[in-house]
Every structure is written in C-alpha cells, then in structure tokens.
Amino acid sequence: MSADYSRSESGERVIAESRRPDGTVRKERRVRAGYVPQEEQQVYVSRGAAFKASVPKCPGFEETSTAAPAKPKTKSAAKNAKRKEKRVTDPTPSGGGGAASNAAAAALQNLSLGGCSRSGVVQAQQTAAAPAAAADEEPSTEKQIRTLKKKMRQAEALAEKQGLGQALSPEEQAKLARLAAWQEELRQLEALS
C-alpha cells in the first residue's frame, strides 16, 4: 500500500487528505525530502545471504537434500530426547537395580498401602534383597518414617482436642481413625531399617 504523493503550492511533497471508513477526514501530511515509507523500503539481505545467492550452483545439485533441519536442537533438547529414548527402551525405574530393587520397591509399595495378606511373602523377599538394595532405599524409608511420625503427632493432637470436648471436622475424624494403621505401618518400616 503505497501512499499517493502530490505537490503542495509551496513545492513540498504531501500525502493528500483522505476520508476514513467512519467518515472522518485525515489531514494532509507533509513528507520530508528523501523519506521512503517502510512499505517501499528494500528488504535487508545480509552479506552471507547475498554471497550465497551470487555463487553459481552446480548442475544437478539439489540444495534441499543436503540442507540441515530448519531449527537445530539445543543441547538441553538433545539431552531430553536421549533421556526419553532411554526411558522407552529401558523399563527399569532406576536403570540397573534388577530383581533386588524391584522386590524392594514392591515391598515398600505394599507397606504404603497399609499391608495386605501377602505381606509375609513380601517381607521374606525383602530380607533376601535387603543387603543389595539397602543403599538405594534408605532415604525413602527414612522419609516415610518421618512423615508417618508427623501424621501420628497430628492425630494425637486431634485426640487431645477431642478429649477436651472440642468438635472435630470430618477430615479430622478420618485422620484420627487412621492412627492405628499408621502405627502398624511405622512398626513395619522400622523393622525394615
């Protein structure tokens, strides 16, 4: 969209007044000497692009077949792609624990569910695999013990609150009801560590 320039009575270039779609009128605007509007300016071409365009092409050479992808991957994107590929090909969670770490993980999962009828079998597997997986599982077991102790402290505080005759909310009553299960789970975890 190039502007229509005209000459005023004084000899200056001007953009003539025009009418907008809503009916209002744009004033006549003076244009300085040497001004080129942005729409009419030439597109900048870097030296490298200009040189590449000026180099003669070999007959039969297809530049699109050897061209690199439009956007190269960054280091972090390449690293994430490798991790994702490794995760898809290697289904073990820790990468190399084998059966011992799988048994330990199953035992911990069983404990976090509050124990079930197979707990004796899982504990037997755990004691067999404990020396191999003890180094990997210590932080998570310790953390589970800490969280259970915190929950138990909160539940005991709620029991004292109830003993004083204060009303408990349904969430607080549910937390108080789980105290015995948490105590049993804490005993099992302490036996493992």
Structure description:
- Residues 11-37 form the WIBG Mago-binding domain.
- With 193 residues, the chain is mainly alpha-helical.
- Helices cover 56% and strands 7% of the residues.
- The chain has seven helices and five strands.
- The strands form two sheets. It has a three-stranded antiparallel β-sheet, with no helix packed on it.
- Strand 3 (18-19) and strand 4 (25-26) form a beta hairpin.
- Helix 4 runs parallel beside helix 5 (119-163), helix 5 crosses helix 6 (170-177) and helix 5 (119-163) packs across helix 7 (179-192).
- The longest helix is centred in the C-terminal third of the chain and has 45 residues, at 119-163.
- The model is unreliable at 113-122 (pLDDT under 50).
Shape: elongated
The total beta strand count reads 5
Biggest pleated sheet: 3 strands, antiparallel
Average pLDDT rating? 76
Termini separation (Å)? 79 Å
Strand fraction equals 5-15%
Structural class: mainly alpha
Indicate the low-confidence ranges by residue numbers. 113-122
Order of neighbouring strands in the sheet with most strands: 1-2-5
**Count of individual helical segments:** 7
State the order of secondary-structure elements, H for helix, E for strand. EEEEEHHHHHHH
Overall helicity: 55-70%
Radius of gyration: 38 Å
